[in-house]
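Now for our specimen.

. . .
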Amino acid sequence: MTSTGSLTDAPSPAPSRAGSPAPFRAPGGVLAGDGPRTAAALLADASLVMWDFDGPLCHLFAGLSAPLVAAELRGFARGRGLDTRALREVDDPLELCASVHRRFAGSAPGTVDAVRGALDRLEERAARRAAPTPGARELLGRLRELGKRQVVVSNNSAGAVAGYLRDHGLEPYVAQVVGRPCDPDLMKPHPHSLEKALTTAGADAADALMIGDSAADALAAAKVGAAFLGYATRPARAAALRAAGAEHLTDDLGAQAAALGG
């Protein structure tokens, strides 16, 4: 999930060393990185672009808040006999579903499956009210014009992603959706979903780029050897991505589309 804000009040990067390119700053407050390549160069070089869903493409819980979804999911689990008292403070739906799986998969696998199905339906409902991320459509379109293969790799349900893409006319831009695996331990930052996307696309990780807004996205990309572009609209989110090893960040996807020309 991504909150709105600006990177303009983030600390300025250290001056570049002699002979090294200065950090790339594009219009719109973009801080694209301290490395030798700009964010636009990373996008231009990639043959496969893997998008995270909630954050880079949309704000999934803009119209149906994440704490409300977690509360409804907790009530669903409780109504089917699971003791959720230890989870009453968990307000992230993904974390709640993962916790239910880890606590009860051995004793009540059928109920855990039902809880996972309930989360799928709640996310699909949230996707119908999701707010598009500014500039995402423009970047999707520009990358398609450049012949890039694009996939969505998400810890959210494949149904929610597919529904959002369909409702917003984005299906032609995306060749594949890799949604949440049944085993929560295989969700990002585990590389499982990215490996699946790479295998299906027949792509080498060295030719791939992940666009994500979380440390989990950055870590998963590093594990498979793919390049990473972090999307952050708040200094705190940018700091978290930096701490996870992200070298290139942007707060304006539309600026990146413009930097690619066309």
About this structure: Residues 1-36 have pLDDT under 50 and may be disordered.
